[in-house]
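Quarterly update, task 2.4: PRP-bound model.
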Amino acid sequence: MKSAVSLPEGTQDRLFEECQERRRVQNALTRLFQSRGYREVSTPEVEFYDLFIQSGSPLPQEQLLKIVDRSGRILVMRPDCTTPIARMAAAKLKDLSQPQKLYYDQTVFRSAHHHRGSRGEIAQCGVELLGAQGLEADAQVLTLAADSLEAAGLSRFHIEIGHMGFFRELTEALGLSRRETETLRDLMEAKNYAAFTDQLTPYQDRAPGRALYRLPYLFGGAEVLDEAQSLFPETTVIPYLRSLYERLTQAGDARRFRFDLGLVHQIDYYTGVIFRGYTHGAGAAVLSGGRYDNLLASFGADAPATGFACDVDAICGCLRETPADLEQSGGGRRLKIALTKGRLQDKCVELFERMGLDCEPVKHPGRRLVHALPNYPLDAVLAKAPDVITYVEHGVCDLGIVGKDTILEQGSSFYEVLDLGMGKCRFALAVKKGTDFYGTYKTRRVASKYPEVTRAFFEKKGMDISIIKIEGSVELAPILNLADAIVDIVETGATLRENGLEPIEDVQQVSARLIVNTASMKLYKDEIMAFIEKCRANLGG
Ligand code: PRP
């Protein structure tokens, strides 16, 4: 039994200054919303599960925190504020004059990822502008979003603007199926340049294909709009974004806004302009929002809508940054990269040396853990593969080099920008030599260091197996008759051979990838793109 003093995953107590700081940010935001004519609403902390399923909730089901009520109905702790407000507005505000300007100061609840430092309770302050569309409405909400981060006390941030319509225009012009579009959208969102480019090879000779190909790189200042327009002159979305930018410039400081035409978040939910706020010190967006014109219709009240939510605790975390941290994040910032210890380490050093980087500190690390490279603004950290992902996801390292095997196992909320083509190996299903793995009806036991990869592989086959997680030398499991097979990395095949095992099926090829924290990519674009290009130019040695 858990100790009486422990708390559920992703939750925490807050005392004194922490409460004060949170309250100060909440007050600053809600005062600002009121001053712009928004009125407060609140919805229950629990809702029916069906509400989020029927309305096409943007959150995956496993993130919903569920409760069963006395009559056996499934309830969820409010996982986002917009869906319940849309439900409420459709039922209770439909006869009121439009537009309706609503704001909230509420907590959302998510099922936190075990041991990954994710939060299960997120304090959000946000607005919903219902019944308004067009340039004025979009500009008004974007200006309010930027003003909110300023009011909360952040001085260095920007709002990144995208539009669902540009991606749609391009995929429709190519006549892509829904499935092809979804695949591209997923790769695009992960900035998985390598796989994204492969998917587009057949469309390279057509303008929308070439525009899609460039899409992952179309982020930055208003100049990206020019490039997008020249790549696909038929677009109606880019002229709209240009007018929006002009309108934002008239309304205030346009330097607060940038564009990311590759923002293609949750295609079924968002319908037009979509945006996120990034600031120094946060590894992920601290504000997110966009236009969702179809949501109210799913509750029987057809009205356009847009809005955003600020992540109050993430903002408070950034306000706690020391002045030295902020100084560090000035122009020409030193980047931090996490390198995978062991086999990949030597390959990384080889690559870096081809790039002209002096790697002496990494080659002779001693007991030091952070190594400043003398002739490039880069600090290297050596870490175990899963930790590389953790450091990059949390934004404490901007970049990482890690095997695709670990990415497949751990999932990814970062950009996977380059297949480095090194550390090539494969996942394989292996058994004791001469065993007929498939020739029996009993539930097979498969041992692996990679239970998620193993589960996904057999799930695709529609096969029910029992998985045993092993931490190292997984080959022992079949030898000791603990398992019928293993799913593991095979490089030379020597380990399998020497232990009387043989591969019977390939699961997937893997190699090392360069990964980038999502916020770092936006905040230090020049430094990071220069590093990516330098890597790309020196691959394959
Ligand atoms: C990996 C893998 C195999 C071995 C395969 O283990 O789990 O055991 O390498 O390589 P081969 O095909 O060239 O023989 P690793 O050496 O990374 O050590 P680990 O078991 O501690 O993870």
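Highlight for this quarter: Residues 17-35 form the longest helix (19 residues).
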